[in-house]
Every structure is written in C-alpha cells, then in structure tokens.
Amino acid sequence: MNPRAFNEITEPPIPPNLKASGKRFWLQTADNYVLRVDQWVLLKQVCRQIDLIDQLQGEIDHMIESEEFIVRGSMNQDVANPLMGEIRSQRLALATMLKQMNLPPEPTKNVKGEEGGEPKQGRFGLRLAQ
Hints:
Layout: H1 3-7, H2 20-32, H3 37-65, E1 70-72, E2 78-80, H4 82-101
Antiparallel strand pairs: 1-2
Helix pairs in contact: 2-3, 3-4
C-alpha cells in the first residue's frame, strides 16, 4: 500500500457554521494544498479560530469607538478590558495551530486541484506567491 495515499483523504466538505474569513481560508487552503488527515482536522480548527478572532476584533473595534478601554474589576477597581488579553491569546493559539499544520511554503496543487504543477491563480482571483 502506498503510505502517501493512506495519509491523504479526499477533500471533506466545508464545515458548517464557518463565517466568511474561515470559509475563505478553508477554500484557499483546500485549493492550493494536498492535505493529510491530520491537516484536515487542524484546518477545521484553524478556520474556527480565524472566525473567533474576527468576532473578537469586532468587539474590540466597538470598544475603541465607545472608548471602553477601562472596565470595573471584581473589586470595583479599574482594569483593562479583558478582550485585549483574550484576542492576544487567541492569536497565539492560531499561530500555534498554523505551525502545527506544517504546510510547505509553496502550494502543492495547481489551479485545477491536481498535485504538482505551477499554481497561477487561487479561487478568489488572488495571485499566489511563487
């Protein structure tokens, strides 16, 4: 049995409930890389993490507009809004997951979804780094 074939699976469907950023990352990754089973599992988590960070960023943008940088703590003291620390933690988690995916720097599929070849353009018309 070919060990490479054993480790690769056909592209699973886009997970439900992904938002725009998560879907975009899923599609770009699926279009440009041949993934192993473990990478598909991580990709799903990465996409959810991307959507969570987008949601947190929206909350922070609202916080900035309303100037709510300081909130009341449990002892009624002024403390920094906990969203700032939370988004930092989520970004670090995303960076760790992306590193775990261990994707090569160059795409492993061409535009038609075949292995190898010279990728020219992604699904969204983005030019891929060569």
